[in-house]
Amino acid sequence: MKALSKKEKNKKKSWRERQRERRLRQQRAQEAYQVQREREAEKKPRKWPKGKIIFGFCLIALIFTAYGTWQYFEGQKPPSFGGATNNPSPTGLAPNFSLRDINGTLFSLNQFNGKVIALHFMSVGCSGIDSISDNQLKQLKNICDNYCGEKSVAILTVAYATCPNSNLALLRVNYGIKWFFGNDWDDYKLDIINNYIPYGIGPGSIVIIDKSFKVVEVYTEQVTASTLSSRINQLLGD
Asked: Are 207 and 220 in contact (CB under 8 A)?
């Protein structure tokens, strides 16, 4: 039997069969092309869309800016120290110390033995002092105007100023500070404040020491000049 040629075979196929075979070949070609594209994509490093890259950089910049701003404002605040303590206050004499006044004069606490002493602790930040220290300095100025040089009363202020921009001399002028005023952080030790931490002091606290050199009162909140005067007068025996 004579074999049919390719051309004769094609003639034997109906038009629908030929169309179906053509669609199958196209479908296989598309599938092969898709597989090839996927393999090529796997070989190439994945690229982020340009919009996502820009958003990522903006987000990182925003985080660093926010952190820097927070750090700046935190650095402007007066430094904190001390706070409430559940331990009983120490007994015995008040811890003695020596400190250099901001004008260079060296003084010590025990040189005021025999007087009623108002020992004031304050912190100073790059932007100034907090509200409690503002109040305490104004009240102590009132006390000094009425007692300094007239009665056996001494006022001392121990500051905690870490910022290079802190102008303690300007604070002295603005608040009319006529008493000894020094920075405990000058030697980077903070030893005076640490010795009084057991008494529960914090920024703005005023410690009252009697004539026998004992701590008899600690004011940790804003206090008025009249309250201080009343306590001082009791200790003076007036």
From this structure: no
pLDDT reported for residue 69: 40
107: exposed, middle or buried (Cβ count in 10 Å: 0-12, 13-18, 19+): middle
As its CATH architecture, domain 98-236 has: 3-Layer(aba) Sandwich (3.40)
For 73, the token pair is 């404002």
Q: Whole-angstrom Cα distance, residue 14 to residue 17? A: 5
CA dihedral of residues 162, 189, 89, 217 (deg, nearest 10)? -50
Helix, strand, coil distribution of the chain in percent, nearest 5: 50, 20, 35
Q: What is the pLDDT of residues 175-186, one digit of tens each?
A: 999 999 999 999
Which parts of the chain have pLDDT scores under 50?
Answer: 1-2, 64-76
| Domain residue ranges of the chain, discontinuous segments joined by + | 10-75, 98-236
In the three-class reduction of DSSP (H, G, I as helix; E, B as strand; rest coil), residue 117 is classed as strand
